[in-house]
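User: quick one, sequence for these C-alpha coordinates?
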Protein backbone atom coordinates (compact mmCIF):
# COMPACT_ATOMS: atom_id res chain seq x y z
CA UNK A 1 0.00 0.00 0.00
CA UNK A 2 1.26 3.46 -0.91
CA UNK A 3 0.25 6.42 1.26
CA UNK A 4 0.93 9.70 -0.53
CA UNK A 5 0.48 13.05 1.23
CA UNK A 6 0.57 15.84 -1.36
CA UNK A 7 2.83 13.94 -3.79
CA UNK A 8 2.78 16.86 -6.24
CA UNK A 9 2.82 19.66 -3.66
CA UNK A 10 6.02 21.53 -4.61
CA UNK A 11 6.47 20.27 -8.16
CA UNK A 12 6.04 22.03 -11.48
CA UNK A 13 3.27 20.79 -13.77
CA UNK A 14 5.53 18.46 -15.83
CA UNK A 15 7.06 16.82 -12.76
CA UNK A 16 3.59 16.53 -11.19
CA UNK A 17 2.29 14.76 -14.28
CA UNK A 18 5.31 12.41 -14.26
CA UNK A 19 4.75 11.52 -10.60
CA UNK A 20 1.05 10.84 -11.13
CA UNK A 21 1.76 8.66 -14.18
CA UNK A 22 4.31 6.65 -12.16
CA UNK A 23 1.74 6.16 -9.40
CA UNK A 24 -0.89 5.05 -11.94
CA UNK A 25 1.57 2.62 -13.50
CA UNK A 26 2.45 1.20 -10.08
CA UNK A 27 -1.25 0.83 -9.28
CA UNK A 28 -2.13 -0.90 -12.55
CA UNK A 29 0.92 -3.12 -13.06
CA UNK A 30 1.65 -4.11 -9.47
CA UNK A 31 -1.96 -3.92 -8.21
CA UNK A 32 -0.75 -1.60 -5.46
CA UNK A 33 -3.43 0.01 -3.32
CA UNK A 34 -2.97 3.75 -2.85
CA UNK A 35 -4.35 6.50 -0.70
CA UNK A 36 -3.52 10.00 -1.85
CA UNK A 37 -4.23 13.20 0.06
CA UNK A 38 -4.17 16.34 -2.04
CA UNK A 39 -5.58 19.82 -2.48
CA UNK A 40 -4.69 19.66 -6.18
CA UNK A 41 -7.73 18.88 -8.37
CA UNK A 42 -5.46 17.90 -11.27
CA UNK A 43 -3.71 15.28 -9.12
CA UNK A 44 -7.09 14.11 -7.82
CA UNK A 45 -8.32 13.66 -11.40
CA UNK A 46 -5.77 10.84 -11.85
CA UNK A 47 -7.49 8.80 -9.13
CA UNK A 48 -10.25 6.21 -9.49
CA UNK A 49 -12.25 7.69 -6.63
CA UNK A 50 -12.25 11.02 -4.82
CA UNK A 51 -13.67 11.40 -1.32
CA UNK A 52 -14.31 14.89 0.02
CA UNK A 53 -14.18 15.61 3.76
CA UNK A 54 -15.78 18.67 5.34
CA UNK A 55 -15.63 19.54 9.04
CA UNK A 56 -14.18 16.10 9.81
CA UNK A 57 -17.08 14.27 8.15
CA UNK A 58 -17.33 12.42 4.84
CA UNK A 59 -19.07 14.95 2.61
CA UNK A 60 -19.16 13.64 -0.97
CA UNK A 61 -17.68 10.96 -3.19
CA UNK A 62 -17.22 10.74 -6.95
CA UNK A 63 -15.78 7.97 -9.10
CA UNK A 64 -13.80 8.12 -12.32
CA UNK A 65 -16.01 7.54 -15.36
CA UNK A 66 -13.48 6.95 -18.19
CA UNK A 67 -13.54 10.63 -19.13
CA UNK A 68 -10.76 12.55 -17.36
CA UNK A 69 -11.86 16.07 -18.43
CA UNK A 70 -15.40 15.36 -17.18
CA UNK A 71 -14.04 13.82 -13.96
CA UNK A 72 -11.87 16.91 -13.41
CA UNK A 73 -14.94 19.13 -13.95
CA UNK A 74 -16.91 17.03 -11.44
CA UNK A 75 -14.07 17.51 -8.93
CA UNK A 76 -14.10 21.27 -9.50
CA UNK A 77 -17.90 21.40 -9.12
CA UNK A 78 -17.70 19.38 -5.91
CA UNK A 79 -15.01 21.69 -4.54
CA UNK A 80 -17.17 24.72 -5.27
CA UNK A 81 -20.08 23.13 -3.37
CA UNK A 82 -17.77 22.11 -0.53
CA UNK A 83 -16.90 25.72 0.18
CA UNK A 84 -20.44 27.02 -0.06
CA UNK A 85 -22.21 28.49 2.91
CA UNK A 86 -25.97 29.01 2.87
CA UNK A 87 -25.29 32.76 3.09
CA UNK A 88 -22.78 32.75 0.21
CA UNK A 89 -23.56 33.29 -3.43
CA UNK A 90 -23.59 30.04 -5.37
CA UNK A 91 -20.36 29.20 -7.19
CA UNK A 92 -21.73 26.06 -8.84
CA UNK A 93 -21.22 26.02 -12.59
CA UNK A 94 -24.27 25.56 -14.77
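Assistant:
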Amino acid sequence: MVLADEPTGNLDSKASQDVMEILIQLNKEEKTAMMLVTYDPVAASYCDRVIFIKDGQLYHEICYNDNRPLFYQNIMDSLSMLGENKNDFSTTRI
